[in-house]
TrEMBL record:
<dbReference type="Pfam" id="PF01370">
    <property type="entry name" value="Epimerase"/>
</dbReference>
<keyword id="KW-0333">Golgi apparatus</keyword>
<dbReference type="GO" id="GO:0070403">
    <property type="term" value="F:NAD+ binding"/>
</dbReference>
<keyword id="KW-0456">Lyase</keyword>
<dbReference type="InterPro" id="IPR036291">
    <property type="entry name" value="NAD(P)-bd_dom_sf"/>
</dbReference>
<dbReference type="InterPro" id="IPR001509">
    <property type="entry name" value="Epimerase_deHydtase"/>
</dbReference>
<keyword id="KW-0472">Membrane</keyword>
<keyword id="KW-0812">Transmembrane</keyword>
<dbReference type="GO" id="GO:0033320">
    <property type="term" value="P:UDP-D-xylose biosynthetic process"/>
</dbReference>
<keyword id="KW-1133">Transmembrane helix</keyword>
<keyword id="KW-0210">Decarboxylase</keyword>
<protein>
    <submittedName>
        <fullName>NAD-dependent dehydratase</fullName>
    </submittedName>
</protein>
<keyword id="KW-0520">NAD</keyword>
<feature type="domain" description="NAD-dependent epimerase/dehydratase">
    <location>
        <begin position="12"/>
        <end position="259"/>
    </location>
</feature>
<keyword id="KW-0325">Glycoprotein</keyword>
<dbReference type="GO" id="GO:0048040">
    <property type="term" value="F:UDP-glucuronate decarboxylase activity"/>
</dbReference>
<dbReference type="GO" id="GO:0005737">
    <property type="term" value="C:cytoplasm"/>
</dbReference>
């Protein structure tokens, strides 16, 4: 098969492009490429991409990836000459990611990682496109020892537990990606992403930092569903987006961890948020929820070696940017009455 011509810019497909990570990725890709954003808004949000809709190099397609996608037949993509140029790169991020809703959308989560991943891989095969899959540290399960997770660790997972639809879904998707890559000689990359945070995170999906910030801005108790000595790691969104782009540009194919290896006490994160918001909130500890899990640490040696990547944004700086964006969210009751500049 002859290589399709590339006109003035590459055509890039981003599934889950209206989500927290996907929308930030689209912001960067649109600077040099034509971007096709796919989402069905199960956990993505339209306001994440509103600012991109008038850009002539951006096109949003509302579609459930568990259904086949015949991209070349979409009339709205004629301007990208997809029928002639095809798609050069695919970033597959689409997966419902809302810990508080795992028990509400388990089948949707499993199908996105199985049927959905297969459908997008078929597009990659048809277009001979480079393929990047955003996996998760969840495939490792809970740590059995203090050592950071390396890519060659197989994981300790409960296949029928409260988080199984997400954890096992990601594990199956990784297997699908790797086997498609081998069978069809595709260039595939898998990024196992550890905790990340930043502007545009949903305020209601059960993630720790948005929950803490929302509580602090409303003056409510900050509830920590873990022991007082519990720790975790957090990577700011701009560092994560840089890692994703470096991975796609690199010659590296395979699996790589992406995360911040700095281990932080959760209570210290809560106290920092209270300080930055000038909140009167108090910290209370509660019994862990069913969908919560003990977090492991990332070993990012391979990311440093193969991608030349490591996180550079300090937690405090990332929290300030996240809080500034969340203060503008109308869904957070009472924020407009707080004086943050005193």
């Amino acid at each position: 098969m002859a290589v399709k011509p590339i006109f003035e810019k590459e055509n890039i497909l981003v599934t889950g492009g209206a989500g927290f990570i996907g929308s930030h990725l689209c912001d960067e890709l649109i600077k040099k490429s034509k971007v096709i954003c796919i989402d069905n808004f199960i956990t993505g949000q339209e306001d994440n991409i509103d600012h991109l809709l008038k850009n002539p190099d951006f096109e949003f397609v509302r579609h459930d990836i568990t259904e086949p996608l015949e991209i070349e037949k979409l009339s709205e993509l004629r301007k990208f000459k997809v029928k002639f140029q095809g798609i050069q790169k695919i970033y597959h991020l689409a997966c419902p990611t809302a810990p508080r809703e795992y028990n509400k959308i388990p089948i949707e989560t499993l199908l996105a990682n199985s049927h959905g991943t297969k459908n997008i891989l078929e597009l990659a095969v048809k277009n001979k496109a480079k393929f990047l899959f955003l996996s998760s540290s969840a495939i490792y399960g809970e740590p059995l020892e203090k050592a950071p997770f390396k890519e060659d660790y197989w994981g300790f997972i409960n296949p029928i537990g409260p988080r199984s639809c997400y954890n096992e879904g990601k594990r199956f998707a990784e297997s699908m990606v790797m086997n498609y890559g081998k069978k069809y000689n595709l260039e595939v990359k898998i990024l196992r992403v550890f905790n990340s945070f930043g502007p545009r995170m949903r305020l209601d999906d059960g993630r720790m930092i948005p929950d803490f910030i929302t509580a602090a801005l409303e003056g409510r108790d900050i509830e920590i569903y873990s022991p007082q000595e519990a720790t975790s790691t957090f990577c700011y969104i701009s560092d994560l987006i840089e890692a994703i782009q470096r991975a796609m540009r690199s010659n590296f194919s395979g699996v790589v961890n992406i995360g911040n290896p700095e281990e932080l006490k959760i209570i210290n994160i809560a106290n920092e948020i209270i300080k930055l918001t000038q909140s009167a909130s108090k910290i209370v500890f509660k019994k862990p929820l069913p969908f919560t899990a003990k977090q492991g640490l990332p070993d990012i040696s391979l990311a440093k070696e193969k991608l030349g990547w490591f996180p550079v944004i300090p937690l405090g700086e990332g929290l300030k940017k996240t809080i500034d964006q969340m203060k503008g969210k109308s869904r957070v009751v009472g924020i407009e009455n707080i004086n943050f500049n005193k």
